[in-house]
Specification:
Layout lengths: L5 E7 L5 H15 L6 E7 L11 H8 L17 H4 L2 E4 L2 H10 L7 E4 H5 L15 H24 L2
Parallel strand pairs: 1-2, 1-3, 3-4
Helix pairs in contact: 1-6, 2-6
């Protein structure tokens, strides 16, 4: 991994469940490895439903159970400029990947990918949206994102 800063944007629909969880999980991983200065992490949603709001309280509660703090995060909407600001834009599901492709400008530098299909090892292609379900959905999201973010960090460290 080069010494420059790697900028990563995690994206879901509303930016209150999955993508802020991915951001917080990745932040914890890079901090644990002493690599915080090597990464700029953010999250966004493809929809404008929750701009300025904190992550869902159930998301925060599930994350806190694993010593992951995310109360300082605020939802924002993904914009075309993100494709010039970030190195990686990682979508949580195929629908959000399609929405991102629709706003991706010509000549964008960001590598647009589906997070789980490229870095997850648990057999899922998409991170399911836990918003309308129970606590087990938020736990599954954390399991999937802890696995995929560890895979992502390993890939970035080894240059793959």
């Amino acid at each position: 991994m080069s010494s420059s800063v790697t900028r990563i944007l995690f994206v879901c629909l509303g930016n209150i469940c999955r993508s802020p969880t991915a951001e917080a999980v990745m932040r914890q991983l890079v901090e644990m490895e002493g690599l915080s200065k090597r990464f700029e992490l953010d999250s966004a949603g493809t929809a404008a439903y929750h701009i300025g709001k904190q992550p869902d309280r159930r998301t925060q509660a599930a994350a806190r159970e694993r010593d992951i703090e995310m109360s300082t995060l605020k939802a924002r909407q993904a914009i075309a400029e993100d494709f010039h600001q970030f190195d990686y834009i990682l979508a949580m599901d195929k629908e959000n990947l399609a929405n991102l492709k629709a706003i991706q400008p010509e000549g964008a530098k960001a590598r647009l990918q589906l997070l789980l299909s490229d870095y997850g090892t648990m057999g899922y292609q998409e991170v399911p949206d836990p918003y309308y379900g129970g606590p087990e959905g938020f736990e599954l999201v954390l399991d999937l994102l802890e696995d995929a973010c560890a895979g992502l960090l390993q890939a970035l460290k080894t240059g793959k």
